Amino acid sequence: MRSPSRVPASRRERTLWLLALAVALAVALVPAFVNPNGPRVLKGPVAFSVGVALMIACLVGSACGLVLAHRDDLAEFGVMSAFFLTLSVLPLVHGTTNGTWYFTVDRTTVAATFWALPIALGVAAPLLALRTELARKTLVRWKSWTGAWLAAVAALCLLAVAAPGWLRAPAAGTFAASVRGLVCFGLCVVLSLRHLRLAELSRKDRCLVVSLSFLLIGTMSLRWMMPESFAEDFWAQAGSTTFAVEIGLALTAALFAGRGKVREVVRPIAAWDPAEAFELGLDPVVGQLVEDLGRKDEITRGHVVRTATLSIQLAEHMNLTAAEVRAVALAALLHDVGKLEVPDAILTKPGPLTDDEWVVMRRHPEDGARIVTGSPAIDSAAPAVLTHHERWDGTGYPACLSGQEIPYVGRIVAVCDAVDAMAFTRQYREGKSLEVIAEILRSGSGGQWDPTVVAAMLDLFEQIDDLPDAGLLASVHADGEHELEFCVPDDPRPVELQTYLPR
Q1: How is domain 274-497 classified at the architecture level of CATH?
Q2: pTM given for the model
Q3: Are 410 and 448 in contact (CB under 8 A)?
Q4: Are 321 and 308 in contact (CB under 8 A)?
């Protein structure tokens, strides 16, 4: 479903991610080629102190994050905090055989460290399968889910202390340990890539930090594939897996800030919905334009917001890159900004437009492109804004472009724009059902719209029960009334009967 006309992807986040992967792999694997009897950078007691300090810091930070998640009912953030809490508390079960709390690496300590990441990944299972219905239902009951897991972890720690030697694990370098290392590495990479995508959508460095944290945790898991993994520098190795401590410390500080500030800190990390991640990364100029549209005509605002949300669903369904999803969503959100230049009498007219009125209305793509081009933060959306009324067969406006002459993003926005215009009730007729819209899309495929985009939209219809409401950018309006029942279509005449004025 991809088109050869592609939008350029942002490379900053991916470059940093690949660089971090190379460094983390080097840190994890180089010791395999180093003489285990050679000099250590950190001697036993020092490594012990560093590792324990890091893990305690991560434990405190993740515990504070869990409190915050419970207070504000942040499901994903709560699961993530429970993940880091589990990861940091289990390796602290040490010195159990001789009752000492100084430098020691006994069998129970190694076993607790072995099982810490697999158990933590069990806690994070809903984040690994977010697109499944079961995962979504689990996140609704996330407090019970994390509570049950943490109770089990606490019981495991108590048993390890009460019965030293009871908790066991395969030796490092064995087949079982190697499988554990590879599986945990793969699952951590899945979590890391997911937050990398959120970082690209939201343009928030906090998401990138979370992504790199999961990446480092995963690469350190590979140490279990090597024999002699836990010599004197055991605690430095265990401590390095809690690189996420900086997140925990940030949350600890945020906990003492105001509620609003806390949400600002947490939302980019806790967002699992691509639409929410996109909203978090929007430049203030976008919010201002949407607010201006709302003041001029609340109906048009609802239309563009719904169209943007639908475009994100479609772009995700088409497996576009995060940068492409962001480009599509931004263009969809701004596609009708040119209607700020349309007189109110025409924009809000309750019936069909006259030919003279259509001459004015048809200028809005060019006016919109001019408005968007005026801001460096959003000028990349200008080509799609200009061309969202072009047709695949070349009979659209303003330039009568055809086929792949129309920018790929513009073709996607055109389909989403038409679907929302058909679906929502107008002042003079009822909205159409998805079934009727699907038939109109099929009839217009290859004529009005790009056939590949239409095919993707029809396939998306098979997976959704209803179209999005206008919940995106709810914060723009203080009154919170953003779920609208009407939209102004770009053409009040039925799609199958559209005719265009001569240029």
Answers
A1: Orthogonal Bundle (1.10)
A2: 0.64
A3: no
A4: no
